[in-house]
Specification:
Helix 6 runs parallel beside helix 8 and helix 6 packs antiparallel against helix 10. It is built from 10 helices and no strands. The longest helix has 39 residues. It is elongated. It starts with a helix and ends in a 16-residue tail after the last helix. It is mainly α.
Length: 208
């Protein structure tokens, strides 16, 4: 939303409620000069300032925060697809979306919810990727050894386990990369269709 649009909306809301700039400034906990600059289109208020103004005017904050809806959707899709950078390096799947989130945190509608879900999923995915050789593969090897009773001699068994472990790691890592990319693409389509994004598994590292 441009400065001019916010200025027009704020002025219209204030006058429709019959309150002065001084009264609005007091109710919102802002300076009179701030209100004047916003209404004159000289400055663009932050998300926090818009929220204070909305509370003082007793309206939904989205009335002031709402931006061009098509641009919001386009940016959210861009943010979602940016997580595909994990293909180049796993941590990029966290860092790139996080940067895009911070850049537009107070400007794009629903960006906080979409970003939290995506980044929580990516953090969880990276942790599982790192833990694969130490948790999943040993469990698989142990299960196979129990089922087929192949633990006959330590030397032979260890060599067999090493080979199985290496190839098992590769298979699981490939499947994890495919799963991550699939979730990203599916949820990008869900954003396009204005549906909630869904990622599994994810640990809620970022809550607010």
């Amino acid at each position: 939303m441009t400065k001019e649009t916010i200025a027009q909306k704020l002025r219209a809301l204030r006058t429709s409620k019959g309150i002065s700039q001084e009264f609005l400034a007091d109710e919102a906990g802002l300076s009179l000069r701030t209100i004047q600059r916003i209404e004159n289109g000289d400055s663009k208020p932050s998300g926090a300032t818009c929220t204070k103004l909305a509370e003082a005017l007793k309206v939904d904050p989205q009335v002031l925060l709402d931006t061009d809806h098509s641009k919001d959707i386009a940016y959210l899709k861009k943010l979602s697809l940016s997580a595909l950078s994990f293909i180049l390096f796993p941590l990029l799947g966290i860092l790139v979306p996080a940067i895009l989130w911070v850049l537009k945190k107070d400007e794009v509608k629903n960006i906080n919810e979409v970003s939290r879900k995506l980044i929580n999923f990516q953090i969880t995915w990276v942790l599982l990727l790192l833990l694969t050789p130490y948790i999943f593969i040993p469990i698989i090897i142990w299960s196979i050894s129990i089922i087929f009773q192949i633990a006959t001699s330590p030397g032979t068994t260890n060599m067999s386990y090493f080979g199985l472990g290496y190839h098992g790691n590769m298979v699981i890592w490939i499947l994890m990369y495919i799963t991550n990319a699939t979730f990203i693409i599916i949820n990008t389509f869900r954003i396009h269709d204005q549906k909630d994004t869904k990622y599994y598994p994810k640990i809620r590292f970022i809550r607010a």
